[in-house]
């Protein structure tokens, strides 16, 4: 695929030898004459984001699905539409373009003879979001690289503190001009219905979050509220005994359907004609989820609300079918979290 042709590289002397002397001579030749190495290994297309679009801009046409042209995953166009490509914003600033390679092949310390003057080379482990392959192959180093990448602060989650419009700190009247606070204090009244908003912010992902195969991967919000004695008040997005996620959770994923409207859950894309559900956060964008629940009278103050953005490569139903193992339990990565403490009180009686 693609319109590039690559010729075999011209190996340096002792390129296929493992001996210490041969390796030392080979590396010395690369250092004193790096031009050939650069011509062989640093082809111009390899530094271009367009190269990534060959695989990461997908579609199915009528010849494949017997239906018509259908857009599939397209991280490349999502990157083009993001601020990182510098393609969409007409500005006077000249910030550099952030390429796919800059995130997924960052500069890292290396001992290769082709390292730059700072001893850095392009990282060839291609960190992304695929925890399934290194978990299955038991590549612990690669699995840790992917986990660290997912937890590197590219996506953030925040719980907005509630502020009751009629909240007061005391029963004593204070002239409006003398008030200092601009926001009312946050608390809940026992027996009332609480409402909390959780924001998921795509800060530094160069494309939509999540990207890739949204139909078989899952990212979701695990939201939980407990009282001072750790008694559960409300939960959304927990794990069921089967290992599946609470189906009522707020998900970031897609649900693909065939021409009869049935769920295509085996990733047989040639049957897909569209999505009945799709939710993602564009680069630089924010998604807000709302949670409404009653405050029981038995709750002890304060309440603690926590929200965790969780990610699993391959949902459990697909993973167990694809890997032919009904006990498999792929790792879940907690990408970001937030928590707040909220006092509860008895509702003040109104004097008549």
Please characterize this protein's 3D structure.
With 352 residues, this protein is an alpha+beta fold. Among the domains are: 1-42, no CATH class; 154-345, Immunoglobulin-like (Sandwich). Helix content is 19%, strand content 25%. Strands 8, 9, 10, 14 and 15 form a five-stranded antiparallel beta sheet that branches. A hairpin with a 5-residue loop joins strand 8 (218-226) and strand 9 (232-236).
CATH T-level fold name of one domain = Immunoglobulin-like
Overall morphology: globular
Secondary-structure element string? HHHEHEHHEEHHEEEEEEEEEEHEE
CATH architecture of one domain: Sandwich
Descriptors:
about 350 residues; alpha+beta; Immunoglobulin-like; about 25% strand
Brief rundown of the structure:
With 352 residues, the chain is α+β, with helices and mostly antiparallel strands. The chain contains nine helices and 16 strands.
């Amino acid at each position: 695929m693609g319109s590039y042709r690559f010729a075999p590289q011209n190996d340096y002397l002792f390129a296929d030898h493992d001996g210490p002397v041969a390796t030392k001579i080979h590396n010395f030749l690369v250092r004193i004459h790096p031009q050939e190495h650069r011509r062989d290994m640093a082809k111009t297309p390899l530094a271009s984001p367009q190269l990534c679009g060959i695989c990461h801009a997908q579609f199915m046409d009528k010849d494949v699905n017997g239906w018509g042209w259908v857009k599939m995953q397209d991280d490349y166009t999502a990157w083009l539409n993001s601020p990182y490509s510098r393609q969409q914003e007409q500005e006077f600033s000249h910030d550099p373009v952030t390429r796919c390679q800059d995130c997924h092949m960052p500069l890292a310390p290396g001992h290769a003879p082709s390292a730059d003057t700072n001893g850095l080379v392009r990282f060839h482990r291609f960190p992304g979001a695929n925890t399934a392959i290194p978990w299955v192959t038991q590549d612990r180093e690669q699995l840790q690289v992917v986990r660290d990448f997912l937890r590197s602060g590219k996506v953030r989650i925040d719980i907005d503190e509630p502020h009751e419009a009629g909240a007061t700190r005391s029963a004593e009247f204070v002239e409006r001009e003398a008030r200092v606070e601009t926001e009312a204090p946050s608390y809940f009244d026992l027996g009332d219905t609480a409402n909390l908003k959780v924001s998921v912010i795509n800060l530094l992902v160069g494309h939509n979050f999540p990207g890739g195969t949204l139909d078989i991967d899952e990212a979701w919000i695990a939201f939980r509220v407990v009282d001072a004695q750790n008694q559960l008040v409300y939960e959304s997005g927990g794990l069921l005994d089967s290992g599946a996620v609470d189906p009522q959770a707020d998900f970031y994923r897609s649900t693909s359907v065939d021409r009869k409207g049935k769920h295509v859950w085996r990733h047989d894309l040639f049957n897909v004609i569209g999505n009945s559900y799709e939710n993602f956060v564009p680069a630089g964008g924010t998604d807000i989820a709302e949670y409404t629940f009653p405050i029981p009278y038995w709750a002890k103050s304060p309440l603690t609300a926590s929200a965790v953005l969780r990610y699993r490569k391959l949902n459990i139903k697909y993973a167990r079918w694809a890997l032919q193992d009904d006990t498999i339990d792929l790792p879940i990565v907690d990408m970001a979290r937030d928590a707040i403490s909220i006092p509860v009180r008895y509702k003040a009686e109104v004097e008549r």
